[in-house]
Amino acid sequence: MLLHLSAEGPPIYQQIVEQIRSRIISGQFQPGDELPTIRGLAESARVNPNTIARAYRELENEGLVEKRRTRGTFVSQNTPSLSVAQRRKRLTPEVDRVLILASQTGVSVEELIDLIQRRRSLIEQKP
């Protein structure tokens, strides 16, 4: 699993939670899919295994994943769906950051929408 982690911004475990949560909610991960092992993901992401364990615990507390003793961590069969208000609340800070950055760099709203659409098509093509 490819993770994009940054030393800047939120703690690493929160970045991991957000990225896995996003993949589950978007359908990239299906109910029953097995997540990488804690040790395996820690090695590929070059982070401490405790960081991955903390992220998995948070996802488990949200009901997005479930641990199966001795078998691993899996996407929950009963993934909670988010309401429109919850989805907007989760996206608003990210949209604000993108809009501010676009304004600071002189990118118009039309250019931003075009970029979002192109990036979305690229992301949807990836397995």
Automatic annotation (TrEMBL):
Record domain HTH gntR-type: where: 10-78
Cross-referenced Pfam families: GntR
Presence of the UniProt keyword Transcription regulation in the record: yes
Gene: ytrA_2
Highest taxon, organism lineage: Bacteria
Keywords: DNA-binding, Transcription, Transcription regulation
Name assigned to this protein: HTH-type transcriptional repressor YtrA
SMART domains noted in UniProt: HTH_GNTR (SM00345)
UniProt cross-references to CDD domains, sorted A to Z: WHTH_GntR
One Gene Ontology term of the molecular function aspect: DNA binding
InterPro entries from the UniProt entry: Tscrpt_reg_HTH_GntR, WH-like_DNA-bd_sf, WH_DNA-bd_sf
Keyword hit for Protein transport: no
